[in-house]
Design brief:
Length: 361
């Protein structure tokens, strides 16, 4: 698929705002149209079951559950494992903490302890200092909400699509086990991490109790997300999914898109990564400040030096010229690559950006 063309001006649009902006391909739509369906409330939708089985197999977990969104996946995973009144270690820049309407507090009843995670990673020393293991004879503190959960994000969107690798996740698993914590992974872009690290996705989720991932981002499905973990966890999650209005009926139509995405689109994620790398190198050459070696997946964080002008003004001119990114945060612009942008599009977009940057005066 190539970038769309504007009707009026015949100008190309390069949409780097998010990898959620892909449209289902004709092949995916055909699969959806011919999906066998049933009532999933009665667990009689074969397409839903097939997607849940495929997910459990790919991730090496006992069972999986289709949910409406990554947000619902995180909410349901956490609510079904951690009783309210507890506290959680989260990344201060995580989607869960910043971009999910505060469900951890409002629906799960959980107090968040947010730590900074440069490059996507907690400082393990800092965590150990925060969550000291009490001596066996010490009386229980009645002051603090008991710590019961640690969440990671893989890849970490807010930190530039950085990957958490197996050794690091295993360290966190030890930390969690020593303190009897539930370990949850927001793996909205889990498969980007697996591809970038050249590991089996099941290796990355082996240390966690629960994981959620999005079908609607790099995988290119029109919606939906999956959660996976133990059979007991998924049974409990089914209950909480129902409570938050996520129980569905002939939803196999959606599951068919997800199944297609896992079978067909997973294998092209590496193209998004090489396109992101090419974009980063191109932006670097144009004078943007980018740590090119930190571009591991499909997200490029580009910082605009003063010489290249005012961020809001460049953003506006980029938009008018067909290069779409979200409004800048400070002097940072985020570019996300996806299946709607091929390598020619990256080159063409860089030409547009180059013209704007050079013609700034
Ligand atoms: C997009 C995203 C989510 C939420 O997914 P939705 O399907 O948009 O609700 C959760 N976590 C991360 C890291 C994301 O990027």
């Amino acid at each position: 698929m190539v970038a769309q063309v504007l009707d009026a001006s015949n100008e190309q649009i390069f949409d780097f705002r998010s990898d959620t902006l892909t449209s289902p391909s004709d092949a995916m739509r055909k699969r959806m149209a011919s999906a066998e369906v049933g009532d999933d409330f009665y667990r009689e939708d074969p397409s839903i079951r097939a997607l849940e089985d495929l997910t459990a197999t790919i991730l090496g977990k006992e069972d999986a559950l289709f949910v409406l969104s990554g947000t619902m996946g995180n909410l349901v995973s956490i609510r079904s494992q951690v009783p309210s009144g507890h506290s959680a270690i989260v990344s201060a820049t995580s989607h869960l903490h910043v971009n999910e309407t505060g469900h951890l507090a409002s629906i799960c009843g959980i107090t968040s302890q947010a730590f900074s995670t440069p490059g996507g990673k907690f400082d393990l020393g800092e965590l150990m200092n925060f969550a000291k293991i009490p001596s066996p004879n010490a009386p229980r503190s009645v002051l603090t909400p008991p710590l019961k959960l640690i969440c990671v994000e893989n890849t970490h969107n807010g930190e530039g699509g950085r990957c958490l690798d197996k050794p690091y996740l295993n360290q966190l698993k030890r930390f969690a086990d020593e303190r009897d914590l539930i370990f949850h992974m927001d793996g909205a872009r889990l498969f980007n991490a697996a591809v970038a690290l050249s590991v089996d996705p099941s290796d990355l989720v082996a240390p966690v109790d629960s994981v959620s991932f999005c079908l609607s981002k790099g995988l290119g499905a029109p919606g939906g997300a999956m959660i996976a973990g133990s059979r007991d966890f998924i049974e409990e999650a089914r209950h909480w999914r129902q409570m938050v209005g996520g129980g569905m009926r002939q939803s196999g139509i959606m599951a068919a898109a997800g199944h297609f995405a896992l079978k067909e689109n997973l294998k092209r994620l590496h193209e998004d990564h090489s396109n992101a790398k090419a974009l980063a190198l191109g932006l670097d050459a144009l004078g943007f400040e980018i740590a090119v070696e930190t571009v591991e997946t499909n997200i490029v964080m580009a910082f605009l030096p003063k010489e290249l002008g005012e961020p809001a003004s460049l953003h506006k001119r980029l938009y008018q010229s067909g290069v779409r990114v979200l409004p800048p945060k400070g002097n940072r612009l985020r570019f996300v690559t996806h299946m709607g942008l091929n390598s020619d599009d990256i080159e063409a977009a860089l030409k547009v950006i180059g013209r704007l940057v050079e013609g700034r005066s």
